[in-house]
Amino acid sequence: MWTKPWNFKEGFLVGGCLVIVGLLLQLSVGPVAWQAFAWPVNGIVLAVFLAVIALLFLWRKKVYAFQFLATYQAAISAMAYAVVLTIVMGLTRQDANGTWLSNMLTFWPFVLIYVYVAVILGLVTLRRLAHLSGWRRDIPFMLNHLGLFLAMTTATLGSADMQRVKMITAVGEPEWRAISADGTVKEMPLSIELKKFIMETYDDGSPKRFASEIKIQTKTGQTVEAVVDVNKPCEVNGWKIYQYGYDTQMGAESKMSILELVSDPWLPLAYTGIYMMLGGAVCMFVLGGRRKRV
Questions:
Q1: Which end of the chain, N or C, is surrounded by fewer C-beta atoms within 10 Å?
Q2: Three-state DSSP state, 166
């Protein structure tokens, strides 16, 4: 072992060491505190991460370990760990207030393995860029790998900037305050006034649809009137506004409505990565079909 060229044994050992380091971090410092990565920290971390990947690529001929990271042996072994941990995540009930396996997104071994996968993705992509062989093969490859890298990094680092709050609105009373998940009251950059609560019921009287006719006023003077349903939000200044609840005792006569406001500024970047992967899959299908016909 550790004799060149390295193989799957070394790859799995590197992944195992990362899991052990992660467990030690979990025991010593606790779960990953993603809230500490709010903007601009996450932007700085992303820039440093990209710079580190570039340096690893430039030094790959001097340090064999860096060269190994861009091999399929390293990639397959890393993905094996990622798949196992993801399966555990799927089989375990996840709780935002949980620890260890019950909150895998803050579980150090899970995070370190995915960082390891992202590093390998970055190095493999740079290696392909340095040895382009033809657009039929390179375009799908770049779309798939760059898309996955973009989706992984932005969705993870961007989670610190996501805000999800509840606002209780009343008829004829503009409301600027909202309540976060931990019970903190915060002033919002927009006010919402409930104009009318709407409810449709089945024949037995159970709710079929409930929605709110609202008036939104931003601090910049913009006014928007909209109707929001449970799964049909409206969006204003980066905030998506969903129907969440109402006064169940009053039912259709409710004079108040509970709205959920969600802001996720990094989400478009994560979606861009997903669309790139879809584009790469389509390119592979189309170009592969043409090659067979030729």
A1: C
A2: strand
User: How far, in Å, are 8, 52, 261 from residue 191 at the CA level?
Assistant: 57, 43, 11
Distance CA 240, CA 198 (A): 19
- 236-266 exposure pattern, b = at least 16 Cβ within 10 A, e = fewer: beebbbbbbebeeeeeeebebbbbbbbbbeb
- Containing 175, the helix (H) or strand (E) segment is strand 175-180
CA angle 281, 283, 286 (to 5 degrees): 110
DSSP lists the bridge partners of residue 36 as none
Task: Copy the structure tokens of residue 130.
Answer: 């340095």
Q: Which amino acid is at 38?
A: A
Tokens of 185: 């009251």
Which amino acid, one-letter code, is at 266? Answer: W
pLDDT of residue 100: 84
**Edge-to-edge strands, sheet with 223-228:** 223-228, 207-218, 185-201, 175-180, 163-170, 256-263, 239-246, 234-236
**Which 8-state DSSP code applies to residue 216?**
E
DSSP code of residue 105: G
User: What is the separation, in whole angstroms, between the first and last Cα of the chain?
Assistant: 45
Indicate the DSSP class of residue 184. -
Omega before 31 within 30 of 0, i.e. cis:
no
Q: What is the dihedral of CA 126, 15, 83, 59, to 10 degrees?
A: 0
Measure the CA–CA gap between 53 and 118, rounded to whole angstroms: 9
Give 168-204 pLDDT, tens digit per residue.
999 989 999 999 988 899 999 999 999 999 998 888 8
Q: What is the pTM for the complete model shown?
A: 0.80
